[in-house]
Design goal:
The protein is an all-alpha fold. The protein has one domain. α1 crosses α2. The chain starts with a helix and ends with a helix.
């Protein structure tokens, strides 16, 4: 048995033991997401619009991650709507910046490889870079969104709030606590990639200026910054959307004493 299969079986056993039925669902959802991403790459290679495909894939991944694993309820619905809204908002904010930064395409170090490849691929690399950023961001904002929505739902059902406005601010405060740790998680993930990249640049005798202006390095920096923008945006958006959905059919200004009377 190869090492890959051994690790895969180990992962499945641990997820089944610790996560139970939900852990097993999460394991199979990984394969569904992998298949979705693979199909996305094929469709982009066939000259489909990368941004439209990425938004569609974000919707599918959101459905798999939230509804398939956690079921359909107000928490998952709030998180799903928030994630899709932030994905669209991030595209509007980031697209123009990425286009002006000129980080799409290949760097000088890859010119030797490009000499053996066809350049007539007719793909918009600006859109592809934005899609890359969005896919890298997606897991983080889904994680934050469901955490905030779930916490606000618990506050709501246990009547631990006074008004609709106070519940909204509770959600934002919860998001602030998550913000720092999630930014660190992203930073550490990209620093791990930077390690080999910086070693490579040092072997090429690059100066700091050359390194900062290199497309490969700049794209990693942009990935961190764009992910940070998405993570910051998901907090107020999720708090607001969850607050509205929880109070659908109810009067948001009711106090906790009025709730108890009913």
């Amino acid at each position: 048995m190869s090492v890959e299969y051994l690790l895969l079986i180990t992962l499945f056993i641990l997820m089944a033991i610790i996560g139970g039925k939900r852990g097993i669902k999460a394991f199979f959802s990984l394969w569904l997401i992998f298949l979705t991403l693979f199909i996305m790459l094929i469709m982009i290679a066939l000259n489909s619009n990368p941004l439209k495909i990425t938004v569609l894939v974000s919707i599918i991944i959101g459905i798999i991650t939230l509804f398939f694993i956690n079921g359909f309820n107000k928490k998952t619905l709030s998180a799903f709507l928030s994630v899709i809204f932030v994905v669209l908002l991030t595209i509007l904010i980031v697209y123009k910046i990425v286009a002006e930064a000129k980080i799409q395409g290949f760097s000088n170090e890859q010119s030797e490889t490009l000499a053996y490849l066809s350049l007539q691929i007719k793909l918009d690399f600006t859109k592809i870079v934005v899609c890359e950023f969005l896919i890298g961001l997606l897991g983080a904002i889904i994680d934050i969104s469901i955490s905030i929505a779930s916490s606000m739902h618990e506050i709501y059902i246990n009547k631990l709030f006074t008004t609709k406005r106070s519940l909204l601010f509770s959600g934002i405060e919860i998001g602030k606590d998550i913000l720092g740790t999630m930014i660190n998680t992203l930073l550490f993930a990209f620093i791990a990639e930077f390690m080999t990249l910086v070693i490579w640049f040092s072997k090429l005798n690059y100066s700091i200026t050359d390194m900062l202006n290199n497309k490969v390095f700049a794209s990693e920096i942009f990935q961190i910054l764009c992910s940070g923008i998405g993570i910051v945006l998901i907090i107020p958006v999720t708090a607001f959307v969850t607050n509205c959905i929880l109070f659908v059919g109810n009067h948001g200004s009711k106090s906790i004493s009025q709730c108890k009377k009913k």
